[in-house]
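User: Quick one: structure for sequence A, then sequence B.

Assistant: Sequence A:
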Amino acid sequence: MSTYEERMSLVEKIKDHEDWSDPLAGWPSPEEQGGMMMSMVQGAVEKCDSGAELSRMERTLLVGSQNTPDRIPTYSFFTDGPANLYGYTCRQVERDPKLHAEVVERWTEEFGFEALGEGIDSMNSEIEAMGLIKMKLPENVPGDVKIRHFDDMSDEEVLDTWEEAADIFNPFTDGRLPRRIELYGHLVERLTKQRGWPVLAAPSATFAQTVNALGFKRAVQWMRRKPENFHRAISAQLKANKKWYRALKSLEVTFFISIDAWNAVPNFRPEQLYTFEKPYVGPLIESVAPSPVIYFYWGLAPTGDGNIPGVNTNWIEFLEKSAETGTFVLTNLAPDYYTAPSNDLKKFRETAQRLGKSYMVGAKDEVLLSGTPQEVRAEIRRIIRDLYPCDKGCIIVPNMIPMGTPKENIHAWVQALKDYGKYPIDLEKIEHDIKAEEG
């Protein structure tokens, strides 16, 4: 069994480790914070009712509270595409928080998204900072796992090591996380305090990190044969992730988005997620209440929407289980270029509204990367038509902005939302334009 010092010797060191101290200890209660937030929502509702154009922040407040703003908002993730667009590699941006903030600001200003969530260094950075894995960091792609320190340990050694690492973990000082602390400080200052824009924080998902640290094989074996081990492991990771969430909240970010991505819906049965993942989402969200948290999953179609032969699972049940966790948004995003999102957008909207949630709808990345501006525009128009009337919390996003996406396609995306996503939605115009193009 390796010692903490041995594991941490393999982790990039930016600051000396310090003991954790909860930065939210002196904050107003969640109830008091909720009251302040609702007064801001009410002010935005009154402004919207007057017919005035809302700010990015006001639009975000309304859509997040299941109200209908002046138009459908859109958000995007900061991966390799935005960095490369402005002539930088992922590592150049990740290593320089001030540059990172400048690029986020430039991207958000140029293309008109409500907010941009940084995502270059999100999937594994917490478990690396805990000394559980060693990352490989190619120059121009997001980082990935290189070494899992658990592979040569016994089950009991894994669990003891994990619990020790979670107890010691301090995101303000450990691993490369101080760079992200600095980044969010810059973003809140430059975007929220100076310009009134929302800042979207993108910490990793607890289930995803637990599987990454264990490796898929051991994770599945524990679920099947030693469920108590998996519960003990994810409980330890939850303790660490709560610290990271609370650290980010203390920087005054506007809301959170956490992605279970590749290793949630596509690779695990819904029943496994209901048992081993869902119970740990609610406590994570509660740790930063009332800050809004989007905890989403790529790939609802693989859980069954009636369109895949041999797949019988009801994705409506999956949405209902997701809603129980306390997330304020339900999503239907696709996991990759090749898998379509759930297709019945009307049912998706109705389900979200029945559950009292906002709803985020994604278009396939391929249309942005390889389509024409006209095709991008047509895709947005189709989604809005299928979601009509798109009220009470509708958000339409690209899954991501792939590297090499033409700038004109990104502009076409946002312009189409402005043209067709203004409330009240003009369905007659949408149908007219569709028919005009078809014939």
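Sequence B:
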Amino acid sequence: MTVRIYNTLTKNKDEIKGRGLDRKHINMYVCGPTVYDSPHVGHARSYIFFDTLRRVLLLDSYTVNYIQNFSDVDEKIDIRAAMEHIAPSVISERYKEEFLEDMDALNVLRSDVYTNASHIKDFMHKVTKILMENGTCYRAGDSVYFDASSGGGFGSLIHDKLDNLIAGSESDGFRFEKRDKQDFVIWIGDFKPDSFRESEGRPSWNLECFSIVHKQVGCELDIQGGGMDLIFPHHEVASVLSKSYCNVEFASYYVHNAFVTMKKDKMSKSARNYVGTRELLKKHGPDAIRLYLLSRHFRDNIEYDEATVGRWEKIARELKEKMADIGAFEAGSSVPVEMAERLTSTSTEMMRVLRDDMHTEIAVDMFIEAVKSFPFRGSTLDDLRYMSAALGLFSFRPA
């Protein structure tokens, strides 16, 4: 069994294969949250989608090393901490725990590895020093910049003329003194090459994800995941860094999900147009949210609508009641991969749809039909449990 997915790098649907000797072992990195505030439904969409991709891979006998960061070195955290008169680490740990609680409630499988950016500052300092020594980074003013022209330049992911984009853009409110618009900041503030402890300032977000991945898996990342807003500059920067540091493309597959929108605009805290994940969990429950967010293909935007979520809550409740009535929950929530050998066409057809570019919107409809029509179309309880585990519903998960 193979899984194919749209790859931003190639602009094609590519079969997922590992870089290492075991072609069915996948190193997968999904950019985590900046932990300065509570997560919203737009965040939940991304993590639910990549959780579902991971589930499909696991059920198809892949092994997945799933890595995620917590971005806890950020100006937004410092500002929040100053407002509350507490240490930045208190802010970041508060919202890290809230994020994990919300993801647990949404039946998102825990990552195999979580890394706080603050825990690898010394490693990021080492990476910066090496890049400076090999001539791909330079100092200007109080910061260190990557010379984009020395590392192959941009272009792997954006597939556009750089002049049409905000080249080398940085979100932080600092004054930058780079030589060229394509260059991007690596270290913000005074960098002491000989000692991380004596350096002032901090590593940039652009350096963070590359460093975390390199520390965990070296140059063998298979899937880089995140929202479409990360394609440029964040994932493009990781690509450029990797070509300089490792002489290879950062990841084999760049997979990006579309947005949850409100009035056609991307849900965003900065724009103050968002609905908190915890708020929606209290109103409608986890299964309604998963069904709602999986009811569109991952590369299509979802316009947030409270009434629509309410309809999915009703559907989720009806499905759960039917599953309880027919005894689907009696064997526990773990679904072994070996169960695939005794499935009927009901679930194998749904898995075929998911293997072909993760068409969750079709899979959701197939699951609803399978539960409502049970057992008249030949499906079994194993089929329903397996389908639930693939979609992350009713607390089912791959064993």
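The first helix runs from residue 41 to 59. The mean pLDDT is 92.

User: Thanks, that's what I needed.
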